[in-house]
Amino acid sequence: MKKLYLSIILAAVMIGxxxxxxxxxxxxxxKAYGKEVSxxxxxxxxxxxAYGFISDGLYIYAILSAEGKVVDITYFNNSAKTELxxxxxxxxxxxxxxxxxxxDDTYYQTIVLNSGWSGKxxxxxxxxxxxxxxxxxxxxxxxxLVENANKLGWQIRTMDQFKLEQRAIKLLAARxxxxxxxxxxxRSEETAALSPSTLTEE
Length: 202
What we know:
Elements (H helix, E strand, L loop, with lengths): L1 H16 L8 H8 L4 E4 L7 E7 L2 E7 L5 E8 L8 H11 L7 H8 L8 E7 L2 E9 L6 E7 L2 E6 H35 L9
Antiparallel strand pairs: 1-2, 2-3, 3-4, 4-8, 5-6, 6-7, 7-8
């Protein structure tokens, strides 16, 4: 029990310090984390950029939209190759939920009835991605947030960004398939060129 309390306290401290979140600008991320340690074009869109930050024992990988707002953020333990604790994941999720909006958790727990439901829809697979995904919708709007494990990290995205990334995954898969076919065709041509029927004595 004592260890559990210590874990909760530690998670609360880390969350309080590592508070950059969905919707932040690059300047706001820098204020929260300090200067980025890496930057690159985002894997999913040439219009987006990704930045890496290190802060309070976490490595934070944030993808910013073309409009310059964080739309995808993944947190990793920067001290060890281990998953984040459930308490830390929960706190990071909470820090990314814009409480200026009414989400399903608030709607079903306080406005309509005290159902005890977290407001998250759970999917065993979502889009092109396997593994558990949790989705919470805005009760009176079109926004939604998606959270899931990403290797050893914990990823939180807007639904619009999730959809963009699914399109990118499909496109990359199609390109890989085409390359495989091209390589297979190239090997066939090379094999045919070396077959006995095509060889002549000089």
